[in-house]
Design goal:
With 571 residues, the protein is mainly α. Among the domains are: 88 residues, no CATH class; 61 residues, no CATH class; 63 residues, no CATH class. The chain has 18 helices and no strands. The longest helix is centred in the N-terminal third of the chain and has 11 residues. The N and C termini lie far apart (167 Å). The model has no long low-confidence stretch (mean pLDDT 82).
Amino acid sequence: MLTGSHGGLSCVDCHRSETNLRFERIGNDCINCHNKDFASAKNPDHLIGGFPTNCVECHDPITNNWSSDNFNHDFFPLTQGNTINDCNLCHHGNFNNTPNTCNSCHMPDYTGTTNPNHISAQFPTDCAACHSESAWIPGSFDHTSFPLVGGHAGITDCNECHHGIYNNTPNTCNSCHMPDYNATTNPNHSSSQFPTDCAVCHNESAWIPASFDHTSFPLVGGHAGITNCNDCHHGNFNNTPNTCNACHMPDYNTTTNPNHTAAQFPTDCAVCHNESGWVPSSFDHNSFPLVGGHAGITDCNECHHGSFTNTPNTCNSCHMPDYNATTNPNHSSAQFPTDCAICHNESAWTPSSYDHNSIFPLVGAHAGITNCNDCHLGNFTNTPNTCNACHMPDYNSTTNPNHTSAQFPTDCAICHTESAWIPSDYDHNSFFPLVGAHAAVTNCNDCHHGNFTSTPNTCNGCHMPDFNATTNPNHSAAQFPTDCASCHNESAWTPSTFDHDAMFFPIYSGKHRGEWSSCTECHTNTSSYAVFSCIDCHEHDNQSQVNNDHSGVSGYSYNSTACLNCHPDGN
């Protein structure tokens, strides 16, 4: 069946021979009809190229177009820079077993390249190692075997490192940088026998500055400023010791304050010093903290006296001279204990910080005592802590009141506080509170008159002179009771607090107000104020008139008691 481009052909188009028609079997291969097309094809020349005679391998039998080939170039894809329309550019008229390696075509590029010179550098002829199909330039060589980073990143001339040799180029630092190693004098790498592995001290950014990680011995404190390795290594960097004394024994041996050698100090410098500096020492003196008065000590010999082995840490080991020389009080004669900390602290020998609160707190007037002998009188053993032990001279010499004649108790604290002997703060509230006018009394003799034994606590015990001297009214003549509190309070003798209106009869209010001038006008019997008269004054002294006025009043009687019974309010 004739299909595609053969579908419109007549029989003679295929069965015609040179002279007549041939209908016997003539073959069904393309070449049977298309041998002239095959032979005449020049681009490419099928005969010279030895192309196969099976036309359908390259040409489409559907279309009626010989040049519309459909050759499948999958075994060597024509992509990127290889997108070629002229087959002879690569095949050169030979299509049998055409090689598919890069160098089969690109050796002219390989041999003509001078940057770098591929031939002299003995580059491999596998172009794909450095180039892609896009273009010969730039090369896409993957330098993964030795990444070009840091200071290497700026290298564009391969010969700077490869020097024309690209086979088995070494990738160690010293393979390129031994000239740097040998030329370096600070420090001198060669004489110092530094390892030739440059990466130990340097990174890829630059030869200088070195980035050596000194972790094995951190350079901090006083070491941080060291820039010359020979200051410590002295030209030897193999197994350099990292102990202090390895470098600092000269400091140890020359130190005289204190003399480390004579004092047999340990050679482990870190016990006393830190890395900031040899002086001052940072010795941890916690076994005997230097606080208070000790904090200012900078010369160890002040305490150690050249001996630092088993130095005692008790106070008296240093302060016995202070103990023996102290006379106020005299520690030696007073037989004070030699444990200085009982009385003194580390701030200073004077003043003493003896805790006096445990047996006799120094408060009030005692707080100002700084001379122990004021109380102890040179005797600190079993010193009494009672008031009279010290204050009997005060007791005996006091005359206001006279403590001795008054037989006051010798317990001074009953009347006095520790603030002062005078004034006394005797608690008078226990049996006679000093309030009102009594609150201003500061002289005990004002009331006690030199007698403090069984002093009466009744008003008349002190105020009988006031009672007897009062004439308005005359307390004595009127036979007033001697209980002064009946009429007076503690604020003052005058005025009296006696309330005549509320308690008995209104004479300061009502009709009687201002009608009298003396108590005796009503209290006619001055010897007894219980006796009073309502009928001896003004209109009441006229009995006839009073009788007439009360005519018909039940229970009326012309006498004072009857008047008061009917007229208690004076009306």
